[in-house]
Design goal:
Layout lengths: L2 H11 L13 E9 L2 E9 L9 E7 L16 H8 L7 E4 L10 H17 L2 E11 L1 H12 L6 E5 L23 H8 L5 E6 L8 H11 L5 E6 L7 H5 L2 H9 L6
Helix pairs in contact: 5-6
Length: 262
């Protein structure tokens, strides 16, 4: 038996697959998810050093309205995707980047698909399930609130950027984060997320998503939470994500958070 054949046989016996091998693919990778007979494209970003450890953190990133589509690629051109292209080493994590079709948002079935993409990655890669993070911008900031409210136990921390928690009628995006049956929205939000580390970001001159939404959410959280933070950028309009995702302070805070072991 040749040495190469022997190595292949040993790898198979030891259960060493492509994701655990030294030659595992890294960088931006195209993935697909099939639900109800339909294929959904999304992207992941795998660090170049993936083979060097077995406990990678995972970030679920929700894009804004401008990156909607079905190509799976546009969300990598803005927000956290663009930050990864500029400085991939700043985010030592596997980043999951789903995409919603035009005319939809990160609620209902689309929110479920985002979680399904996350679950697919958690099942296939070597990760630390207690260091799974959630973030998004604008429409994805709303999605961050939405998913965090419904699944706070799944995440070690969440960072909504220029998002909103209640109706944004000016954009036709009127799915509230808090279901009406849960009672008054802001107190319910604060109670539900009291133990989830949150860092909220918004520009004080935002003409797309009013900053007041982030202010009032944080004010409600202050009555219940000791792990919520808020940064308001003076003079900044809607794009408060580039400065946030380029922030070493934000990255250090994010990856320092850990979900209590279950």
């Amino acid at each position: 038996m040749r040495l190469t054949d022997l190595a292949a046989l040993l790898a198979g016996c030891l259960g060493v697959g492509a994701l655990g091998a030294q030659g595992a693919e890294t960088g931006f990778l195209s993935r697909t998810l099939t639900r109800a007979g339909q294929r959904h494209r999304y992207q992941i970003h795998v660090p170049a050093e993936y083979a060097t450890r077995t406990d990678w953190p995972v970030v679920l990133y929700l894009h804004g309205a401008g990156e909607r589509g079905e190509d799976g690629l546009r969300p990598t051109q803005a927000g956290l995707g663009a930050a990864l292209r500029r400085a991939p080493k700043r985010y030592p994590a596997i980043v999951v980047i789903p995409q919603v079709p035009v005319g939809t948002q990160w609620t209902g079935a689309q929110a479920d698909l985002a979680l399904a993409a996350l679950d697919q990655v958690l099942g296939e890669y070597r990760v630390d399930v207690n260091r799974v993070y959630l973030t998004g911008l604008s429409m994805g900031g709303h999605g961050t609130w939405y998913l965090a409210y419904r699944h706070p136990e799944r995440f070690a921390a969440a960072a909504p950027i220029c998002g909103w928690t209640q109706d944004l009628a000016s954009h036709g995006l009127m799915v509230p984060v808090v279901p009406p049956e849960d009672g008054p929205a802001l107190p319910a939000l604060a109670r539900r997320l009291a133990k989830l580390p949150l860092w909220i970001f918004h520009g004080d001159q935002d003409t797309v998503v009013p900053v007041q939404g982030s202010r009032t959410a944080f004010e409600a959280l202050q009555a219940e939470s000791t792990v919520a933070h808020y940064t308001e950028y003076p003079g900044l309009n809607h794009n408060s994500w580039d400065v946030t995702y380029a922030s070493d302070a934000f990255v250090s805070w994010l990856f320092a958070q850990r979900r209590p072991k279950r």
